[in-house]
Structures are given as structure tokens and as C-alpha cells.
């Protein structure tokens, strides 16, 4: 595997939260979804990758460079889109870009204007007058214009209406991934990743609880529904979570093949969404 990002045994302790032994590897030309509830540790992990905070333990390698000792070399190859943005509100896009472009020796002004036109961003408009969706587009344009190889997106679609979210997802597919770039997308809006992700890492309470290729994870799991009378005590071992009432039961299994061998054919098996999987794992007492 051609790893663009490697995280090994990353730990960070705060008074009320701990990031515990995070391990992650991203393959070139893929989009990896980094999924978890708010406060699960996504932003702490990203800030560690970006050398914005110092971990207590662990090593991070970005594009072959040690993240601590090669900070400037790495930053020139990263495209970062953060939830809160870091632009001067009273500047126009044109003036903001004039400040940013000289920081990159690889800046391509022709590509920059082509992306502005493609995404319909007005250069004479002030940052403070941009919608949240337009700010996200502008951040992507800047990253694309200096030839970023790895895109790190922290909640890029949070607070956007479904139409704008869908548009940004299409931009990632048609522009970023089509050019064999690599994307780490941290989000709690899992429906976006159902459409585009190659790999998934689920984080809950500072721990990676599940990871792997998206299609394999979804194929391994199933939402199971049926009559509670069909359930025997030892069937509980096959479920991540299980809800029962007098009307029926519903649960998530992480071993669909094994469960099908022991439960009667009257049971219904449905393909879970990424949100279904996250919600069941996040509700487990051990998480």
C-alpha cells in the first residue's frame, strides 16, 4: 500500500478527555471518512496531524515526512479545510489570495482562476459576505491551486443545506479524487460518506472502534428485525446492539453470515447505513 498518511499509537490526554492509541493509514488516491459523534476526538487527531497541538505519545508521518520535524515541507503539500475557516473577514477573495499565493512556490495562478470560474466564486466579494458553502469552496480552490497532494477536511459540510452539501461532495469526486489526490474527511454527517468514501475509521470517546473498506464494513453488518420470540439468550453475542419491544426486535449484527445460520428465515436483514453502524457502536456501554 502507498501510504500518504501514517498515524501510530497517537495519544493525547486532557482533564476530561483522552485520545487513546490512534492508528490510521491512508492510501494514495482514496477518500477516508473519519467518523464519530461531536467530541469523539476527530478534531484533536486532525490538529495533531497538522502539528497544531503536541501529542503525549505517538508518531505521525505525512507524505513520507515526520510531522514534527518537517512541518513546513508538509504544509506546502497539504490542502486544509477547517470547520471554522481562517480568513480575514474584511478582505475580498482577490486580496485574500494575494496574501496566500506567495506562500507556495507551486502556486498556479491559471489553475486558480479556472477553479474560481468553475465553482462560480466572485473574486471581488468580501469573505464576510460569503455563505458557508462558498467559504468551503474557496478553501478547496486555494488547496487545488498550489497542487496539494493530501486534503484534510474537518466537518466541511456541517451547517450546510443538503443541496450545497451534495455539490461539495461532487466537487470532491470530480476534481480532487479524479486527480488522484488523497482525502481525509472528518465528519459526523455520515450520509455524505455513503456516497463517496473508500475507507472508514469510526472513533468514539477517543478510541478507534472500527475501521476498514466501507463496502466490507457494510457487507459484514446488517440491521436485523423480527419477532422477539425468535431470540435465544446466546443470540445476543452476535449483536453490537439490540432493541426489543412487544412488537418486535431490531439490532445491528457485526457478523451477518454467522447470525443467519442460527436465526430462523422469518428474520429480516437490511443493509445498514454508515449512520446506523455508528449509532449502534456509539451506544455500546463499553464505548
From TrEMBL:
Residues 5-230 form the ABC transporter domain. It comes from the Bacteria. One of its GO terms (molecular function) is ATP binding. Keywords: ATP-binding, Nucleotide-binding, Transport. CDD domains: ABC_DR_subfamily_A. Pfam families: ABC_tran. This is ABC transporter ATP-binding protein. The lineage of its organism: Bacteria, Bacillati, Bacillota, Clostridia, Eubacteriales.
Amino acid at each position: 500500500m502507498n501510504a500518504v498518511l501514517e498515524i501510530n499509537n497517537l495519544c493525547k490526554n486532557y482533564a476530561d478527555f483522552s485520545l487513546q492509541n490512534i492508528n490510521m493509514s491512508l492510501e494514495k488516491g482514496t477518500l477516508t471518512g473519519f467518523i464519530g459523534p461531536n467530541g469523539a476526538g476527530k478534531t484533536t487527531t486532525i490538529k495533531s496531524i497538522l502539528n497544531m497541538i503536541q501529542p503525549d505519545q505517538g508518531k505521525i508521518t505525512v507524505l513520507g515526512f515526520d510531522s514534527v520535524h518537517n512541518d513546513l515541507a508538509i504544509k506546502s503539500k497539504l490542502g486544509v479545510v477547517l470547520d471554522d475557516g481562517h480568513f480575514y473577514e474584511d478582505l475580498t477573495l482577490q486580496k485574500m489570495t494575494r496574501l496566500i499565493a506567495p506562500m507556495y512556490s507551486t502556486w498556479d495562478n491559471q489553475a486558480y482562476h479556472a477553479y474560481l470560474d468553475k465553482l462560480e466564486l466572485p473574486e471581488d466579494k468580501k469573505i464576510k459576505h460569503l455563505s458557508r458553502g462558498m467559504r468551503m469552496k474557496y478553501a478547496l480552490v486555494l488547496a487545488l491551486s498550489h497542487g496539494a497532494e493530501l486534503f484534510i477536511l474537518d466537518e466541511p459540510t456541517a451547517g450546510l443545506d443538503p443541496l450545497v452539501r451534495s455539490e461539495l461532495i461532487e466537487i470532491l469526486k470530480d476534481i480532487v479524487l479524479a486527480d488522484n489526490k488523497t482525502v481525509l474527511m472528518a465528519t459526523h454527517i455520515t450520509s455524505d460518506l455513503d456516497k463517496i468514501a473508500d475507507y472508514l475509521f469510526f472513533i468514539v470517546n477517543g478510541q478507534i472502534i472500527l475501521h476498514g473498506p466501507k463496502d466490507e464494513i457494510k457487507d459484514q453488518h446488517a440491521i436485523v428485525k423480527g419477532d422477539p420470540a425468535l431470540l435465544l439468550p446466546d443470540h445476543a453475542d452476535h449483536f453490537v446492539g439490540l432493541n426489543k419491544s412487544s412488537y418486535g426486535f431490531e439490532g445491528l449484527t457485526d457478523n451477518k453470515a454467522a447470525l443467519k445460520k442460527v436465526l430462523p428465515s422469518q428474520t429480516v436483514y437490511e443493509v445498514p447505513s454508515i449512520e446506523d453502524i455508528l449509532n449502534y457502536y456509539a451506544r455500546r456501554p463499553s464505548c
